[in-house]
Write a structure and sequence with these properties.
With 421 residues, this protein is of the alpha+beta class. 32% of the residues lie in helices and 26% in strands. The chain has 2 domains: 205 residues, UDP-n-acetylglucosamine1-carboxyvinyl-transferase, Chain (Alpha-beta prism), CATH 3.65.10; 208 residues, UDP-n-acetylglucosamine1-carboxyvinyl-transferase, Chain (Alpha-beta prism). α4 packs parallel to α6 and α10 packs parallel to α12. The protein binds uridine-diphosphate-N-acetylglucosamine (UD1).
């Protein structure tokens, strides 16, 4: 079992380059199933969720070539199965995109119920509502979802809840449907726009992604040979921005889209740190302890739930008492118990938590309870006095490429150690 050993007390300084977005890549790869041909994707994050999807695509008959660690060609000419290996799909959340893509291409899909981080109940009723509205029969039984349709026909779908996954999945299923599909109350995250742009590059006709209404005019076929670069990871960029705040650091975060981080930038300035955007880079620096602040996580362009734990570290050491309200997931505060082991004073009450800022955190053995909690605990370990050992890295490796190397390059004392049991 691997663990990260972090000797803390470092002020992070230097430049870090952001990878392609995990949440875009895990949708773009299944989307390649919609073309009967070759797609080349660049700026792919080299993370375990991406590798699992590639393996699943290969089992369905795709041919995948890695040209570099971040460039993949997917040839979907010889897809011979519509059943994704059930044990593999249950390992991560985004496997649900295989349903929309296979349904769109083959009018049939059997996929295991999706797994992923334990953030509380993670229903997929809005995905199913969308598939059914398009004309599919959907059954959920024995740990799998089976969907099939004679044909898919465009219609109007109103999402009862703003859902990233349901928005993308309905787009995937409707690109090759007959007629026009309208998604009302969709999610607007940058990776939704990215998936729409990718599909449009291949000849789809999707309008309005990133706005309040998405309109998909069905086309009969997509063209192969598209080359597409994955959008920079807004959550990874935000993770490094907050690491500068927590360590009184000075970081230039390169290859990101500053506008995607406007709400975080506003909060960081409110906390007394400096932020300057310059083209595709963001400079964050401070020499003072963060000020207290309150926030509520919301769908984009609100404060992202996936940056809540990293922000929680900054508030744990802020000057004064702060409150976070979690607006998306039920169980997103598991990391607070780990931070309390490091000397934080956080009280979690259901979907909110009160952070009484302390001067200093102290290194301790802690566990990554989920992906973003893991990133938060790395930041806490770097900011803390003494040594932190962080276990359960499987979550972190699902979503961050070379995370310890990136932190090492900006001054962190962090080593991955493999322990035999
Ligand atoms: C995606 C991201 C995840 C992020 C989340 C919210 C991926 C692979 N994961 O997850 O990192 O934390 O967006 O930004 O992109 N809901 C329903 N019914 C549904 C679908 C969702 O009630 O059918 C609810 C969920 O319980 C949650 C909220 O809607 O409370 C948002 O979920 P959703 O946006 O779908 O999250 P994911 O796509 O799973």
């Amino acid at each position: 079992m691997d663990k990260l050993v972090i000797r803390g007390g470092t002020r992070l300084k230097g430049e870090v380059t952001i990878s392609g977005a995990k949440n875009a890549a895990v949708a773009l790869l299944p989307a390649t199933l919609l073309v009967d041909g070759i797609s080349t994707i660049t700026n792919v994050p080299n993370i375990s969720d991406v590798k699992i999807i590639c393996t699943i695509l290969e089992k369905l008959g795709a041919n995948i070539t890695w040209h570099t660690p971040n460039t993949i060609t997917v040839d979907t000419t010889h897809i011979h199965s519509t059943t994704a290996p059930l044990d593999m799909t249950s390992k991560f959340r985004a496997s649900y995109y295989l349903i929309g893509s296979l349904l769109g291409r083959c009018k049939e899909a059997v996929v295991g119920l999706p797994g992923g981080c334990n953030l509380g109940a993670r229903p997929i009723d809005q995905h199913i509502k969308g598939f059914e509205a398009l004309g599919a029969n959907v059954e959920v039984s024995q740990g799998k979802i089976s969907a099939s349709a004679k044909k898919l026909v465009g219609t109007s779908i109103y999402l009862d809840i703003v859902s990233v996954g349901a928005t993308i999945n309905i787009m995937l299923a409707s690109v090759l449907a007959e007629g026009t599909t309208i998604i009302e109350n969709p999610a607007k995250e940058p990776h939704i726009v990215d998936v729409a742009n990718f599909l449009n590059t291949m000849g789809a006709d999707i309008r309005g992604a990133g706005t309040d209404i998405i309109k998909i005019n069905g086309v009969s076929k997509l063209k192969g040979n598209a080359t597409y670069s994955v959008v920079p990871d807004q959550i990874e960029a935000g993770t490094f921005m907050l690491s500068a705040v927590a360590t009184k650091g000075d970081l230039i975060i390169k290859n990101c889209i500053p506008e995607h981080l406007d709400c975080l930038t506003a909060k960081i300035i409110e906390m007394g740190a400096n932020v300057e955007a310059n083209g595709d880079a963001i400079h964050v620096w401070t020499s003072q302890r963060p000020n207290k602040t309150n926030l509520k996580t919301q769908p984009y362009p609100g404060f992202p739930t996936d940056l809540q734990p990293q922000m929680g570290v900054c508030l744990a050491i802020a000057n004064g008492t702060s409150i976070i309200n979690e607006g998306i997931w039920e169980s997103r505060f598991q990391y607070t118990a780990e931070l309390n082991k490091m000397g934080a004073q956080i009280t979690n009450q259901g979907k909110s938590a009160i952070f009484e800022g302390v001067d200093t955190l102290y290194g301790a053995p802690v566990e990554a309870t989920d992906l973003r909690a893991g990133a938060a605990l790395i930041i806490a370990g770097i900011a803390a006095k003494g040594e932190t050992s962080l276990t359960n890295l499987i979550h972190i490796d699902r979503g961050y490429e070379n995370i310890e190397e990136k932190f090492r390059k900006i001054g962190a004392n962090i080593q991955r150690v493999t322990e035999e049991f």
